[in-house]
């Protein structure tokens, strides 16, 4: 088979706004002048990327990467069915509940879990505290798309009843959390951060949402993301960095990082295609875990890139991330990319045995 390389080295004139107007009728869409202007920079960058791709000799018989296996040659990993929910706290010291409950708003999940497990505080009390903070600070931060207050109160009430009955599910039981608003949640909008989808309701729960509910966590809010998972500006405005309100919180897991950093949730869940957990976590100074591709099911999540999308926690400590990840990883039968490797926390491997690059 003959390989053909297209020479795109000759400089071409820049894309004009008029070209976008002419193209709209072909795809059945219509944009405003402001929207067309915003598109120009991105389209120009995409064209440069396509020009680079066309310089690569790629024969027709070469397939794309349909699956990803993290194992290096000669590496062996534990086998067996993934069993989320086996993680445990490394520190079981019992913290003392302060007189003012709002002082725990910035506590890590590990300490909040001990407060609930030792019944010093109820899930309902934590939930009402975080809901009040969400309502108070969201007009400043613009990190909330939809409060799920009715659902949260039902889940908190159920958690308290189970814990009182001796049915403690683990460290996430009764903990309020927030979901990036590209994760489907039954009976609530899932907007993708974009105005055309602001009334969209997907009548199912994403696998991640289901698994966190099974772990006893309490969903208090659908949190903002940049439009269609790009950057930190959505149809409700620019999501702010709590440490510097002059800055956005970065994206696209903008609301998840902002709300966690501001002590508006116990933890949150974000997604990453190319930096969307790592970047806002860096900007907002929180702990984000971008899992290896194929570790967490994306069933019920908006697809940006089927071969790159990943779902992971955004928290206030590394161990918090491990506890949340432990509740959501592993196959569900719906996302064929998910591998069946177990996860152990606390890790028994010595730091001295690791090589980080």
Verbal overview:
With 357 residues, the chain is an alpha+beta fold. It is built from 9 helices and 10 strands. A 6-stranded mixed beta sheet has the order 1-3-2-8-10-9, with helices on both faces. Strands 4-5 form a two-stranded antiparallel sheet. Strands 6-7 form a two-stranded antiparallel ribbon. β4 and β5 (237-238) form a beta hairpin. α4 (123-141) runs antiparallel to α5 and α7 (254-261) runs parallel beside α8.
Please give the number of β-strands: 10
Rounded radius of gyration (Å): 22 Å
Strand order of the largest sheet: 1-3-2-8-10-9
Number of helices: 9
SS strand fraction: 5-15%
Unreliable residue runs: 1-9
- Helical fraction: 25-40%
Question: How far do the termini sit from each other?
Answer: 39 Å
- Averaged pLDDT, please? 92
Structural category: alpha+beta
Q: Tell me, what's the shape?
A: globular
Main sheet summary? 6 strands, mixed
Order of helices and strands: HHHHEHEHEEEEEHEHEEH
């Amino acid at each position: 088979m003959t390989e053909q390389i297209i020479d795109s080295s000759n400089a071409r004139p820049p894309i004009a706004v008029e070209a976008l107007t002419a193209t709209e009728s072909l795809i059945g869409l219509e944009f405003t002048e402001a929207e067309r202007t915003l598109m120009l920079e991105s389209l120009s960058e995409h064209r440069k990327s396509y020009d680079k791709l066309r310089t690569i000799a790629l024969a027709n018989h070469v397939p794309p990467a349909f699956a990803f296996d993290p194992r290096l040659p000669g590496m062996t990993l534990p086998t067996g069915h993934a069993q989320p929910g086996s993680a445990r706290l490394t520190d079981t010291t019992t913290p003392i509940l302060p007189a003012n409950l709002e002082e725990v708003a910035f506590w890590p999940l590990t300490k909040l879990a001990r407060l609930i497990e030792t019944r010093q505080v109820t899930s309902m009390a934590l939930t009402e505290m975080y809901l009040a903070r969400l309502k108070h600070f969201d007009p400043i931060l613009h990190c909330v798309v939809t409060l799920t207050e009715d659902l949260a109160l039902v889940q908190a009430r159920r958690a308290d009843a189970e814990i009182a009955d001796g049915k403690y599910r683990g460290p996430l039981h009764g903990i309020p959390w927030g979901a990036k608003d590209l994760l489907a949640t039954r009976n609530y909008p899932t907007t993708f951060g974009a105005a055309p989808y602001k009334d969209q309701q997907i009548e199912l729960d994403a696998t991640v949402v289901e698994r966190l509910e099974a772990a006893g966590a309490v969903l208090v809010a659908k949190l903002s993301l940049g439009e269609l998972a790009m950057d930190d500006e959505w149809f409700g405005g620019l999501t702010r960095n709590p440490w510097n309100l002059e800055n956005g919180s970065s994206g696209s897991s903008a609301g998840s990082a902002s709300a966690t950093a501001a002590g508006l949730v116990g933890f949150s869940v974000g997604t990453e295609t190319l930096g969307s957990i790592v970047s806002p976590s860096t900007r907002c100074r929180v702990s984000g875990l971008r899992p290896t591709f194929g570790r967490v099911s994306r069933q019920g999540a908006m697809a940006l890139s089927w071969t790159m999308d990943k779902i992971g926690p955004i928290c206030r400590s590394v161990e918090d991330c491990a506890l949340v990840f432990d509740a959501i990883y592993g196959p569900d039968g719906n996302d064929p990319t998910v591998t069946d490797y177990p996860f152990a926390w606390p890790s028994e491997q010595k730091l001295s045995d690791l090589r980080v690059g």
